[in-house]
Each structure stands twice: as C-alpha cells, then as structure tokens.
Structure prediction request, 316 residues.
Amino acid sequence: MVKKIALEEHVLTPGLIDYWRPTMTTVPPALTADLFKRLTDFGDVRLETMDKSGIARAVLSVAGPGVQAERDAAVATKKAKEANDHLAVEIQKRPDRYAGFAHIAVQDPKAAADELERCVRDLKFCGAMINGHTNGLYLDHPSLAPFWERAEALGALIYLHPADPVAPLSVLDGYPALARPMWGWGVETGSHALRMVVGGLFDRFPKARLALGHLGETLPFLLWRFDSRAKFQGLSLRKPPSQYIKENIWVTISGMLSAEPLKCSLDALGRDRVMFGADYPFEAMEEAGHFLDTVSLEESLRADVGYNNAARLLGL
Ligand code: ZN
Prediction:
C-alpha cells in the first residue's frame, strides 16, 4: 500500500449536528445512523479503517453544511469556534494520525479571518474547509477580502466542499437523482470556484490557495475552453483562467475513483497538484485507498499523489 494523507475526512462535533440532520432526509434511517456513528467516532473504527487503507494521517473536517447554514452571524461565529476547539482536543489525542481543517463562519469576515488565524497558529490546523455558499454568499464576494487577505498571509489552504445550490436547478426538475452528488453538487461547486477565477479573486490575492474535491469538479477537463472563450467575453483578468486554476488550485481524488479523470487532472494541472482524499464516511475509505494503490501510475507519482504533495503543501 502506498502511504497516504487523506484530505476530505469528515467528523461531526456536538454543536453542529442539527445542521447536518436535514441533509439526510432522503437517506434511509439505518444508513444515517451508521454515518452518524462514524462521523462522531475519532477512535478505533476510524483509525482501523485508516490502517486498512494505508492512510497515515487524516485531515479532519466538519461534515456540511455546519455554520454555512446559520443565519445569525454571531451564533455562526460562536458555533464554529466551539467546533474547532472540540476538533483540536480530538486531534491532540492522536496528533500522529490526525490534522484538521478549521470550520469557519464567513458571515462575519473579520471574525472569520481571526478564527482562521487562531486555528492555524494556535491549534496548528492546516487551513479551513468551507462547505459551499453561506446562505447564498460565495467566496468571491468583495466583503470577504479580510478573510482572503489573512488566508493568503497564513498560506492556509481553503478547501471548498460541495453543497446544495441556493435554489434547485430547473434543468434538473423531475430528476431528483441528478440533484445532488451525481451531478448538481459538481455544477454548484465548479461554478463557485469559477466565480473566484473570473471575479479576479486570484489577481487580488495571488498567493491564495484553494482546494477542490472530485478531481477539481470538472475544471481540469475544461481549461482550453475557459481560455478560448474568456478572450471573447472581455474579461479583465491579468492571466488566462487556466493559469489561475493551475497556480492557485489543488485537487483531491475524493469521490472520483477513476483513472481517466485522474490522468486528465495530473496532465492539466501538474503532478504536484493532485492529492488523496476519501470523503469518509460518505464514501468507503478502503475503496479510495485501493484505487490509488492499484491505478496505473508511475510509482513516484503514486507516492506524490498519496502523500508527498499534501505533506509539502500542508507542512505535515
Ligand atoms: Zn465530503
């Protein structure tokens, strides 16, 4: 087994359970109960599953939506801080196996910046995971400049996790199977990342670091088209869109265990831009581990994707 650092490994902390429950209304109760058990376990079951999958270290993050769904900014800020403190205590029990992404309420951008700094500097987290839009606020919004300024200064990786869109996509009406992980989340999350590119966020914050799961939510496949059409749209960006995607965005294989898009992402973005993630417990950790262990890749590249790229980027 190749040694791995896994970047999309979810947990639930006590104060955030009520945000998570509504996302499970279409999931059978027995499965929801099993997911809940795994999300709240920081001990034997998680560690044994990591061992079976070759995962040396898991970077833990709160399962969505968390405080991204909270309407009261002060409540969101307080609950995010409590979640980070809870996570830090659990990580400290096994600092050799766990690391963390902070849970951040961007409703109050200055408080979000301060909390990110506290988590990175004091709690030694690797960055933050943001669970999609925050009540319709996307990460390119000008009000979030204080957050990005701090993230850039800290060199913190901001992992953008999929979420439901603000309103259901009418093109998917009548096809509930398409609404969420099968298609809709990719559209939502890829579009969210493209807002940051097209909105010039990476011109304003050239050292900002963004991570996407699912091998980049289809972006690596589309680089040529972004550049080709950007010319006709009169975008006033300093660089072609593909350049920002290659320089400011890293991707993980979470939930995309398929050789062709993996090779596309490596070719399009570069061998140091693709990392491992399992999306546990929503996907099977062992399956993700087995995929990376067996997919046709040159061995030093397998080691980079599995471990070295994340170790370098996150300082682990
Ligand atoms: Zn996930």
